UniProtKB/TrEMBL annotation:
Classification of source organism: Bacteria, Pseudomonadati, Bacteroidota, Bacteroidia, Bacteroidales
Domain Schlafen AlbA-2 residues, every copy: 20-129
Keywords associated with the record: ATP-binding, Helicase, Hydrolase, Nucleotide-binding
The keyword Zinc is assigned to this record: no
One Pfam family hit: SLFN_AlbA_2
Statement: the UniProt record of this protein carries the keyword Nucleotide-binding: yes
GO molecular function: helicase activity
Domain Filamentation induced by cAMP protein Fic-like C-terminal: 409-472
Species of the source: Bacteroides caecimuris
Protein name: ATP-dependent DNA helicase RecG
Superkingdom assignment: Bacteria
Length: 482
């Protein structure tokens, strides 16, 4: 792009300073100009104009041999070597000129640095690039071989993985038609097919998906959960930290959300339907996306879910693909998972949809429920998804008399599953689509037992091999009240 005349300069100025154009009065600001040029190289390209004020007034500057030498030396400090087009647009009836530095999109060579430091553009401001963003660009440049999920862990063995969870993934994948009937039940073979094991060595993705994390060193497989009083972080009402594999964290997240978001009921059909304050499909999609597409590289990173009186925030480490903004996310877009191995296994299990439909689903579900569309706040090294709603301090079901009202919606869900049946723990968990036994016992079974809605068939032998659970009279009365 040649910028050797004032007409071209004026066209650039008409757009004012933005993500791809910067004004500097003179090359006395050469250092700041070069930092911005470096940021343009790490973005989609752009132009730095010297001889233009912040308000877009063309004043030009004198160009001496020293000016040209300083420019050449500054450009040589860019790493790797960059193609910078330098143009001089003369002012009429003057010795002064507007100096233009222009760079095209150079994404195949990113990240760039100036004097050993990388820069990036945030709206119309230039800032130092965080280490995580720099590493992400390195990974994009150097291909897939350095992706964290692909890295081998020779200390990881099959005994460290939950084989039942692997087989459940296969069963659900076959049921939904995303895996062939002959996938088999040989766990090592399945892991090889999913790309989670190569030549007998497991990788990080296998640990995230199926690991038994009690004895494993994956501190980033952490979920932080909090319910705050009011609209800030001053007062905690509830706080939990859960360590586990993907499915354990997903179960724990949804259990916590059910615990603290109110339920309402409708009877438009023959059966009563329960609805969360935020539509279930929308909030679950937000949690799934945060766990799937987050950055796992940093050991100190974790997903956090914070519930306030007026909103729910889901925060995860990592960023969207380069050049994505809020408008692109709302429109139809391609799917570019940060962790393709994780995304592939979750797609096979029908936990995750492909083709970039998740964000659109969240928007649609919230609109149908009369709620504002969820918002994304994109920071330099993290993303926060915000659902705005009114959250009450204690979930309730208005149709149930106070003396029979269960303490949590998980208890009521368990009561509905049992109805007039006798079921084992495994059968109840499958019906509730849960697979993390400690979460089930803590949030469902134990409260239901304590409140007298459920009773075991063998109360004197809690670990009886044929142990099952049924509703008490109080539990049956609760169902009748519905």
């Amino acid at each position: 792009m040649s910028i050797d005349n004032l007409d071209t300069v004026k066209q650039l100025i008409a757009g004012k300073e933005c993500g791809r154009v910067e004004f500097k009065e003179t090359t006395g600001q050469l250092e700041r100009g070069m930092e911005t040029l470096c940021a343009f190289l790490n973005g989609e390209g752009g132009t730095v104009l010297f001889g233009v004020t912040d308000k877009g007034k063309i004043i030009g500057q004198e160009v001496s041999d020293k000016t040209r030498r300083d420019i050449a030396e500054a450009i040589n400090r860019l790493e790797p070597v960059a193609m910078v087009q330098i143009s001089y647009a003369p002012l009429p009836d003057s010795e002064k000129k507007v100096i233009a530095f222009h760079v095209e999109n150079s994404k195949l060579n990113r990240p760039f640095s100036y004097k050993g430091r990388p820069y990036m553009r945030v709206e119309s401001a230039t800032t130092t690039m965080p280490q995580t963003a720099y590493n992400d660009l390195l990974l994009q440049r150097d291909g897939n071989r350095y992706r964290w999920e692909l890295l081998e862990n020779r200390n990881l063995t099959l005994q460290d993985l939950d084989a039942n969870e692997v087989l459940k993934t296969v069963r659900l994948g076959i049921e939904c038609g995303r895996l062939p009937e002959d996938t088999g039940t040989d766990v090592p073979v399945i892991l090889e097919k999913f790309g989670l094991q190569k030549n007998g060595v497991l990788n990080n993705a296998a640990a995230v998906l199926f690991g038994k994390h009690e004895d494993m060193e994956y501190p980033q497989c952490l979920l932080r959960l909090a319910r705050f009083k009011g609209t800030d972080k001053t007062v905690f009402m509830d706080s939990q930290r859960i360590q586990g594999n993907f499915f354990q964290l997903l179960n724990a997240a949804m259990a916590f959300i059910f615990k603290h978001l109110s339920l309402s009921g409708t009877t438009d059909t023959l059966e009563r339907e329960e609805h969360l304050t935020i539509p279930y499909k929308a909030i679950r999609e937000g949690v799934v996306n945060s766990l799937t597409h987050r950055s796992y590289k940093e050991a100190g990173g974790s997903v956090g879910i914070a519930i306030y009186d007026d909103r729910v925030e889901i925060e995860n480490p990592g960023t969207f693909p380069p050049n994505w903004d809020a408008e692109k996310m709302k429109s139809e877009h391609e799917s570019k998972p940060q962790n393709p191995l994780l995304a592939n296994a979750l797609y096979k299990r029908k936990v995750l949809e492909s083709w970039g439909r998740g964000i659109g689903l969240m928007m649609s579900e919230c609109r149908k429920a009369g709620l504002p569309e969820p918002e994304y706040r994109i920071w330099s090294d993290s993303v926060t998804l915000i659902f705005k709603c009114e959250v009450t301090n204690r979930p309730s079901t208005d149709q149930v008399p106070t003396k029979h009202r269960p303490s949590t919606d998980q208890v009521f869900a368990l009561v509905k599953i049992l109805d007039e049946r006798e079921l084992s723990v495994k059968e109840i968990m499958e019906a509730l689509e849960l697979n993390h036994r400690p979460t089930f016992r803590t949030n469902y079974l134990h409260p239901a037992l304590d409140e007298g809605y459920v009773i075991p068939l063998y109360p004197e032998q809690p670990s009886h091999p044929k142990q099952k659970y049924r509703l008490t009279e109080k539990g049956l009365e609760l169902l009748k009240q519905q």
